[in-house]
Design goal:
Layout: H1 3-19, E1 22-27, E2 40-44, E3 47-53, H2 58-72, H3 78-83, H4 86-92
Parallel strand pairs: 1-3
Antiparallel strand pairs: 2-3
Helix pairs in contact: 1-2
Length: about 90
């Protein structure tokens, strides 16, 4: 897949998650000698935020979001699913 395709998919997933009141933020997540913060979600002031490490290549950023979609068990409507490529729909469906 081309990087532009991955960026497009990232934006589609971000929009879908926003529809479900989840914010996606790309951040340079902390790293140290004995630790590394990984992409994931958290609750902050009653708001669910999904953090994606901006240092990751775009295909890995998309993969982290897809993993989140699979684990989050969000009920997607048909229009949302239709926006996603078939291989991603198969994973979350």
């Amino acid at each position: 897949m081309l990087k532009t395709d991955d960026e497009k998919i990232f934006k589609i997933i971000t929009k879908i998650l926003k529809n479900h009141e989840l914010e996606v933020r790309r951040e340079k997540l902390a790293r140290g000698d004995s630790f590394r913060v990984k992409s994931g979600d958290c609750n902050f002031r009653n708001k669910k935020i999904v953090f994606i490490d901006a240092r990751l290549p775009i295909d890995q950023q998309v993969s982290a979001l897809v993993d989140y979609l699979v684990l989050a068990k969000i009920q997607f409507n048909t229009n949302e699913l239709d926006e996603l490529p078939q291989n991603i729909r198969n994973l979350i469906g």
